[in-house]
Write a structure and sequence with these properties.
The structure is a homodimer of 197-residue chains. With 197 residues, chain A is mostly helical. Chain A has nine helices and no strands. Chain A has one domain (48-193): Tetracycline Repressor, domain 2 (Orthogonal Bundle), CATH 1.10.357. Chain B binds a DNA duplex (30 and 30 nucleotides) through helix 3.
Chain lengths: 197, 197
DNA sequence: GGGCGTGTTGACCGTTCGGTCAAGTTGGTG
DNA sequence: CACCAACTTGACCGAACGGTCAACACGCCC
């Protein structure tokens, strides 16, 4: 009796969905790729949408791990933001090299796709994106306190703009292949922060 | 014999897809909403993907009309960019008020969704996004020539960043409702241009 | 050993999907 | 009027969809 069935389903589903979209991946696809029967799937997940929520949470956990790694480092706030952007873009490029197709952000598009599926999904999606932009906002606040950043900008606002910018650059990369994504993203983020490139 | 059947299909399909995603809208949905039988649909479109391409082109035509209106105006380049951002965000908000749900960008997500469906789709998607960012790039170039903008930035690069930023802000708005989208987007675009807010 | 909870199996359900088709209907043209 | 092309109709196809179910296997604890 394999105890890792649920994890296997989630892992496989994450890859499949990341490569396209939630709607385009069927429960059957997931089961086949995970070597699991549909009955087992529905033993762990009440519905396909329930899997979607789990996927969103799992992907957010992964992104948050990257955020924590970058933002817990003993470096000035601007450099911590840079480190995350580097890591985030690097992850996307890595997936692209492994799968042959540039993926989008594993969180943003999924959140946008799930949001209309119910109030709980929309709430969760909003929470996740808020939490994410909060990391940027905190760094901006600290940068302003240290004098690295001008005080004129609203940190929460800038945090949201940086998150939006990353989401958009990931989307464009999906279409154009995303060459030099990390460097190009860094300069844009710097501009949004009002800091020299 | 109504000659506007094809147009009606496209118009209805644009609305349905704009509200969710291409994959989540079925040919049946489109036909029912357009008051058309499936046989008629396949008289005009060889496949569902063919409709997707048409939708991408039609939506791009609409966005390009907004671009032309803003960028043909006798105003300095920065103001022309502002005017487009204003118009673009205003259009999204208008759709939101009419349908009750904040839509995403009618072009970007569709391009990203269609891109993996074949080489021709990916090529078309890349062309559209290139053309769009080109409008921004041209304005940046002109702004630099006039001395409104610092010369250090690569216009093509900045154009792409502005487009990505707009795409991302639209995606976030889909989740959070997008209050004050236009104003918030304008300040971010200004920052990316390296111009005062 | 016997029961029980956790997983697993594979067939099955009704619905919907993208797509097809032969038979009709219409409007325009000669 | 006859004819042809453009268009419409509605039934139909096989496959895939999300989801269900009763029967069954295993590990664990009393």
């Amino acid at each position: 009796m394999a105890r890792d069935t649920r994890e296997r389903i989630v892992r496989v589903a994450r890859e499949l969905v990341h490569g396209s979209s939630f709607a385009q991946v069927s429960v059957e696809d997931v089961c086949q790729a995970a070597g699991v029967h549909k009955g087992s799937f529905y033993h762990f997940f009440g519905s396909k949408d329930a899997l979607g929520l789990t996927l969103l949470d799992t992907n957010w956990l992964l992104v948050r791990a990257m955020l924590d790694e970058a933002f817990d480092a003993p470096a000035p706030p601007l450099q911590r933001i840079d480190a995350f952007v580097q890591g985030f873009c690097g992850m996307l490029v890595l997936v692209a090299e492994r799968t042959g197709t540039m993926p989008g952000c594993p969180v943003g598009p999924l959140a946008a796709e799930l949001a209309p599926h119910g109030d709980d999904a929309r709430t969760r999606a909003a929470e996740v994106l808020d939490a994410w932009s909060g990391y940027f906002a905190d760094a901006v606040r600290e940068g302003q306190a240290r004098g690295d950043l001008a005080r004129g900008l609203d940190p929460a606002e800038v945090g949201r703009q940086v998150l939006g910018y990353l989401q958009g650059m990931a989307l464009l990369a999906q279409v154009d292949g995303g060459a030099g994504l990390a460097d190009r993203s860094r300069s844009g983020v710097r501009a949004l922060l009002g800091a020299p490139g």
